[in-house]
Amino acid sequence: MPVYNGEKYIKEAIDSILNQTYKNFEFLIINDGSTDDSAEIVKSYKDSRIRLLVNEHNLGLTSTLNIGLREAKGEYIARMDVDDISLPDRLKQQAAFLDAHPDVGIVGTSFIRINKDSTFFDVPVVLRYDDDLQMQLLYENPFVHGSIMFKKSLLIKLREPYYRSGFEGAEDYDLWSRLAEITKVRNMSEILYKYRINPGGITATRKKIQQEKTKFISKNNYKDAKPSDFNIVQISKLQSYKNYRITIDNKNKIIFGRNKFIRHQFALMKICFKKRYIYRALLLCFSWLLAIFSFMILQPIYFFGSAVRTIKRCFLNDLASLHE
Asked: Cα(119)–Cα(204) distance, rounded to whole angstroms?
């Protein structure tokens, strides 16, 4: 767990790890030149599982993460962010999952988003299976960085540095994209992590840089993609996910995210035409027409039918009350 001026949330993060039902682990905390009381808070814990490393000056997240990977002694490496919370069974369930699935090298979890006051924000939908996640990796990072557990043995197959400089803000997306070429990846359906929407966090303060780096990595992933990497079922499932991805906010409103989906469809069609995979491109066009038909024709019919049923119900209730 890298730490830079994280005194506000660090105690909550540390407690969530020390209180795990899985007890046999080393908790590596790296203080990256913090100027607040982060280091003193860590030192106040007397748990022998905590190993504190200190950077003499601020090296940045990417370099600090690489130090952590070199120093980690365990067979499995679990990430944790200083402003997030791991639920009690997280390590136990992820370790058991990797034990039971030797072909899977990276496993994330479903998660809850919380705000700066630790109150519930929403529960995003995540894809779970390798085929779907490999597709999603083409255009965005399908994992919450802090929720990941992966096999350290995979790193032997990569050159150092594992987290590469030049990808700051999306260094995890870059690493997962490379590791996914040599192992299967999964997301667990169980909610085992709380991800904080922190206005002062790295994701918020470097959002523009992160978007630029994500776009660059995505472009490289698309360039390296082969037609044999796709099948119709995967494309259809991903279309459904992107077109009808539902996020429930704290007011229980339904939000349909379509902008990324549209960009993704054009990128997929570009790949299909470029690789002369014409029939798949035509299927994408057909899916578009079907989606437009469903949205413009079927949805109003459904709402009209609901309205008629509601009026009929009210009318029958009024008749019943008159007879009484």
From this structure: 18
Domains and CATH numbers, the chain: 2-224 (3.90.550.10)
Q: Is the dihedral of CA 168, 161, 65, 224 positive or negative?
A: positive
Q: Is 222 exposed, middle or buried (0-12, 13-18, 19+ CB in 10 A)?
A: middle
Q: 48-74: per-residue pLDDT in tens?
A: 999 999 999 999 999 999 999 999 999
Pairing outcome for strands 149-151 and 246-248: unpaired
Helices (H), the chain: 10-18, 38-43, 61-71, 90-100, 130-136, 171-179, 202-205, 207-224, 232-243, 259-274, 278-293, 299-323
Residue 256 has a pLDDT of 36
Alpha carbon distance 257, 265 (integer Å): 13
Q: What is the pLDDT of residues 90-105, one digit of tens each?
A: 999 999 999 999 999 9
pLDDT at 271: 58
Q: How many CB atoms lie within 10 A of CB 178?
A: 17
